[in-house]
Design a protein that fits this description.
The protein is mainly alpha-helical and about 50 residues long. It has helices at about 15-25, 35-40. It has a domain at about 15-45. Helix content is about 30%, strand content about 0%. It is elongated.
Length: about 50
Amino acid sequence: MRVEILGQERRRRWCDEQKLEILMSVGIDGATVTEVAQRHDVTRQQTPGAVS
């Protein structure tokens, strides 16, 4: 079976500093994990260290 991938790959590479910055922005001014994830165009499950 041959599979072709069409379009751009959406995989992102986050350095440790970026992950920490995203994680630390949860709770600032009441921001939720979901709101922070939306700001970074990812799902809340993809947010590093996502907590409820």
